[in-house]
Write the structure tokens for this entry.
Amino acid sequence: MSQITLPLSVQNGPLIGQERANQDRGGMPPALRCFHRLSFLAIATRSRNLQQPKCQARALPQTGREEKRREGQSSASAAMAGCVQAAAMASSGVSFAVSSSLSSTHACSVASEAAQAFVRADGGACKSSLRVSSSLSSSSKHSLKTFEGLRFSPLSAAAAVSEVKGLQMPAQGSEMGPRRTTSTTTVVTVYAGKSSPKLQGRKLRVAVVGGGPAGGCAAETLARGGVETFLIERKLDNAKPCGGAIPLCMVSEFDLPPEIIDRKVTKMKMISPSNVAVDVGRTLNDDEYIGMVRREVLDSFLRERAEKNGATVINGLFLRMEVPKDEESPYILHYTKFDGASKMGTPAVLEVDAVIGADGANSRVAKDIDAGEYDYAIAFQERIKIPEDKMEYYENLAEMYVGDDVSPDFYGWVFPKCDHVAVGTGTVINKPAIKKYQTATRNRAKDKIAGGKIIRVEAHPIPEHPRPRRASNRVALVGDAAGYVTKCSGEGIYFAAKSGRMCAEAIVQGSANGTRMVNEADLRVYLEKWDKKYWATYKVLDILQKVFYRSNPAREAFVEMCADDYVQKMTFDSYLYKVVVPGNPLDDIKLAFNTIGSLIRANALRKESQKITVG
């Protein structure tokens, strides 16, 4: 990272001089000249995953003589408007963040002028996004929220300002008054990508490779958004080895019909290495549950819904793709098409403008864009048909087993399905022993599944962390292909569906409903939103796995903690609704002490067990 100080040229109006950014990746941001008393510090950065340079500029108030408030307001707003205009007019994809220390009232005027300059500069031709945000004290009556725009059609200045939601601007020419106003920081961020051409006589063409929850939801969103969509899936009866648990919020958020949900689990048993069982679910309300689905049913429903909305579903095996050397040539996808004409399939080619890789942990799309490797777990699952009287026990109950015998770094499960149970386990650190762990899981539950018959055996890799690269040019990864499976819980269905939808939404928005070409800047809107929303969730679960799955005594402590009602409530609220629920401070302190106590006891037990083993 390099730092440079750029002089900025500002009047009470547009920027005086502008130069286009250097087209070279290592080029400087647009040079801005100025003779006002604001100096700007620009931080030019280069990211290996970005095709354009990036610039952040912050307004640093000068020390010394203090300007009059209204003169300062006019200067700052003109400076920010000029920066916005310059960034939007630049054709090499420069990202600006301009901040200035102003009063809350001044911030509103600055935002309005910046918005007007942005719309004037953009004119509907540039892929640009404007964000105006502010941190105000609770005592301030002026609320300045977030404003985001993509490819605005030419609007008048007044109309542009009216689009800024949440802004309360002083009337034109009104006095600001002598009272002291609350200090704040206003940030204007402009992403000015290369002007994308309007597609002539056709819609944007996007291929979704993979027809699981990620691919199905992506294809549906694209098709509904006016994009010509192709969904390629080899196994239309796919039955991936998956526990099949989905949170309650997914049912409503993705409009899932009740008939595809096999069971509504309202009770769970956490079973420790010493077979101590803790009942979990006491804090659930009457209408709350964990849904249990079969992947072949869920995946088929999502694909069919995408097809009804206009997506073309192709029964084919994706082989490879040719990556174009410029920003407008198509991606050429090679695949084997299975249409009944030949058992071996027939070679086929598809040309598209963009690609979404939703083809799982062994993603071929990821390999084609050199997305990097990651650690993965092996999940092994058996579907077991058990007698009806045994099935009654699992009517609304799921079981989770922990211990070195069932997995050195994960857990074993027994999850109920429509007329059978799914018994499985997984591991990262000892994959060759997966069948031994599966046998142990089955033995731990043997009394409750006695007389059962194995009707299906499944195994599949599960990613352990996000890939180093999830987007490249006009290709993005979602679901397992991107590495969106949580540690500790192993949850992946909801995050796959959510990432597919978020990626597709970014493409629909960036392409103006399929009428314009997209580029990497559009796809990175999805990545930025995803990381902001879910990064903390993945980090916390990663830490929990490292702390509580490292030894049998630690697992005993983990199960002991699960008996606490407060732990259950916080866990279920976070899982069912995918939101971080604020806790009670006193209960949080109590939980912290209980956790420390459990870990101390677990560590003492581990040392004693080691002594016994050595002796």
User: Anything to note?
Assistant: The radius of gyration is 28 Å. Residues 1-79, 81-194 have pLDDT under 50 and may be disordered.
